[in-house]
Amino acid sequence: MRMTASQVAESDGLVRGAVAMSPILLGVIPFGMIAGVAGVENGMTVLEACAFSLITFAGASQIAALDLLGSGAAVSVAVLTATVINLRFLMFSAAMAPHLQTQSLAGRLLSSYILTDHAYAVANARYVTGPPPRDKARYYLGAAVIFWVTWQLSTLAGALLGQGIPEAIPLAFAVPLSFLALMMPALTNLPAVTAAVVGGAVAVTLVGAPGNLGMLLGALLGTTAGFLHQRYRSWRAEA
């Protein structure tokens, strides 16, 4: 059965997006496995860990929420913490909206669900720095879907691995280590360093706070400190 010209174009867009994302997946696999390990380490079954990953699909905030829930924090604290960590997606969504406005409502909902830092970076780089793909939505979906599939399979592998490791071998260290690995490459300017120092200091100081509120307050105050520092630098540059 021969494909029409439009079907070929759509397939080409999906493939090109997936190919552009492929080199990044090598770093995604171990992080997704950590998410699976974090689930079973914090009391979930393999099925529950995978279901949580399917529902939330949130990377860093997914692991943070698992850690909070596993340590006895209230669900509201876990939700608020994840929300604060994910506020950056408001900016990503606003930047992507003009490129995906031709999608149907169902397509836009799917695109919002599978939006990640990596999918945004891959798609936006192609939209801005080079000749845009013929179908921007298909290119984005190709990049985002292959990331989603890789993440879910990695989470499953991590959950199975974590379930099979004896309880005498501690796995909890994997969670803070994953956050350190995420944080260090992001410390590229002084506002980012300010956010990390303030957030870390608050979280450590309030480590014994009820319901693990220290992590939530650390995220809020760290984000606020970084934002204010950036605003101050902008003000000084304009003065």
Q: Which class best fits the helix and strand makeup? A: mainly alpha
Largest sheet: none
Number of strands: 0
Instruction: Give the overall silhouette.
Output: globular
What are the main properties of this structure?
12 helices; single chain
Detail the topology: elements first, then pairings.
Layout: H1 5-21, H2 25-41, H3 46-56, H4 60-70, H5 75-85, H6 88-96, H7 105-113, H8 117-129, H9 136-164, H10 174-186, H11 190-205, H12 213-238
Outline the structure in words.
It is a single chain. By secondary structure, this protein is mainly alpha-helical. It contains twelve helices and no strands. It has helices spanning 5-21, 25-41, 46-56, 60-70, 75-85, 88-96, 105-113, 117-129, 136-164, 174-186, 190-205, 213-238. Helix 5 packs parallel to helix 12 (213-238) and helix 11 runs antiparallel to helix 12 (213-238). The protein starts with a helix and ends with a helix. Mean pLDDT is 81; it is low at 1-10.
What is the gist of this entry?
With 239 residues, the chain is an all-alpha fold. The protein has 12 helices and no strands. Mean pLDDT is 81; it is low at 1-10.
